[in-house]
Amino acid sequence: MNMLRWPYPHLIAHRGGGRFAPENTAAALLAGSVFGYRMAEFDVKLSSDNIAFLLHDDTLDRTTNSCGPAADWRWAELATLDAGSGFDPRFADEPLPTLADAARICLEHGIHANVEIKPCPGREVQTGKLVAQECLRRWGRATIPPLLSSFSADALSAAREAAPPLNYAWLIEDTLPSDWLTTAQQLGVIALDIDHTLVDADLVTAIHDAGLALMCWTVDDPARAASLFRLGVDAICTDALDALQP
Ligand code: G3P
Ligand code: MG
Fold it and tell me: Which of 93, 115, 130, 189 has the fewest CB atoms within 10 Å around its CB?
C-alpha cells in the first residue's frame, strides 16, 4: 500500500515545456503554464562562481550561441548568452535563467517545481548543497516545498543534509539497482523517478509497499501514460504538453 499521499500534480512539464519554447528557460516555464501544467521539471547546475542556473547539458553547445563546458563560465558571462535563437528565431536573446529567476516565475504563476540537480562532472556534492540551500531560501516556508531530484546519489545526499525540509526524489536510468530500497531510505527520498520503460505492475507495488511514490520520465504517448496511471504511477514527466492534458 502506498502510505504517501502524493502532494504534487500528476503531470509534470519536462524542461519547463521544452518542445514549445527553448528548454529550461523562462519562456519554457510560461509555455507549460499556458498548457495548464501546474508543475515543471527543470535542470540546474552551477556556474564557475557558484550561481545556480538552468541548463541540461554539461556544455553550452546544443542550447546556446556559445560552446564549451558550462562549468568554466562565470555567471556574468553566461547571463549574456542567447539560449533561444537555436530553438526558433522568435526566441532570440532568451537568456539562461538563474534558479532564483525560475523560483520567482514558479511562485508568481502557481507552478510546483521539480528541480533536477544536474551537476557538472566532479561538482556533485557542491551542486547538491548550494542548489538545496537556494531552494530553501527562495521557496521559504511554502506549504508544499519544491521537489529536488537527481541521478547523483552524492548530490542528493548533500542536498538533503543542507536542506532537510525539502522533498527529494532519486532518478533512475538503465537499471534499478537491487539495493534500491536501502539506498532510497539512506537518501531519505519520498519518491523514485524512473525511466518509464523499466516500470511494470510488480515494480509499482514494490515501491508503494516501501511507502515511496513512483514518478516516471519521459512519457509522451498518451496510451502509455494512461497505462502507467492505471498501474498506480503517481506522476509522469512529459514533453507532450499538447497530447497529455492536465
Ligand atoms: O527528471 C526527468 C528527466 O528530466 C531526466 O532526464 O536527461 O531530461 O534530465 P533528463
Ligand atoms: Mg531533467
Answer: 93
pLDDT of 3 higher than 60: no
Task: Read off the pTM.
Answer: 0.97
Report which protein residue has its CA nearest ligand 1's atom 2: 217
Q: Which domain holds residue 202?
A: 9-57+93-236
Q: Is 244 inside a domain boundary? A: no
Indicate the number of domains in the chain. 1
- Cα–Cα nearest to 199, from 168, 230, 222, 169: 230
Residues 6+ apart with CB under 8 A from 51: 75, 78, 98
Nearest residue (CA) to ligand 1, atom 4 = 14
Ligand 1 lining (C-beta closer than 6 Å): 14, 41, 43, 56, 116, 149, 171, 193, 217-218, 237
Q: State the closest ligand 1 atom to the C-alpha of 56, by its place in the atom list counted from 1.
A: 9
CATH number of the domain where residue 120 is located: 3.20.20.190
Q: Is 112 a catalytic residue?
A: no
| Per-residue pLDDT reduced to its tens digit, 18-61 | 999 999 999 999 999 999 999 999 999 999 999 999 999 999 99
Average pLDDT, stretch 229-239? 98
